[in-house]
Design a protein that fits this description.
Mean pLDDT: 79
Distance between the termini: 28 Å
Largest sheet: 3 strands, mixed
Radius of gyration: 17 Å
Number of domains: 1
Low-confidence stretches: none
Number of helices: 6
Helix content: 40-55%
Shape: globular
Number of strands: 3
């Protein structure tokens, strides 16, 4: 199935219960990041934050964060067990992490340090986890 745009894809995820809508106020300053980090480690649902502080727009994250949603984006294809395992394998660098390896290959570029979430933010997200409604 081809999707007209990201909203069309999100509607499809919503219909298949692969998208969780978060209606409470969320801070765009690291709270969303901490939630996304935890979900990526759990292969959790895609999220749509509908009320983001200081933003007139909702924020959608993790839309392609699990094999099931990747298959859905590709038209509900069925991938072989071996290909699914390859997609789920954590051994290969992807995205910005893949570009970082270029320094050792002679492509010098200084990368910023990784952001470490503050203890206060981790505690806030843990405290509010039930409010988010993410299981």
């Amino acid at each position: 199935m081809a999707y007209k745009d990201l909203q069309d894809f999100s509607r499809h995820l919503d219909e298949k219960s692969l998208l969780k809508r978060i209606k409470i106020d969320i801070d765009s300053e690291l709270e969303i990041t901490e939630i996304a980090d935890r979900l990526s480690k759990q292969y959790g649902p895609a999220l749509l934050f509908e009320n983001v502080k200081v933003s007139p727009f909702p924020v959608r994250i993790h839309a392609m964060g699990a094999c099931k949603r990747i298959c859905t984006a590709l038209g509900d294809i069925i991938l072989s067990e071996g290909l699914l395992n390859a997609l789920a394998h954590d051994g290969h660098k992807m995205g910005i992490d893949a570009a970082k390896k270029w320094t050792s290959e002679g492509h010098g570029r200084k990368w910023p340090e990784d952001i470490e979430m503050t203890k206060d933010m981790k505690e806030l997200v843990s405290k509010r986890w039930a409010e988010y409604g993410i299981h």
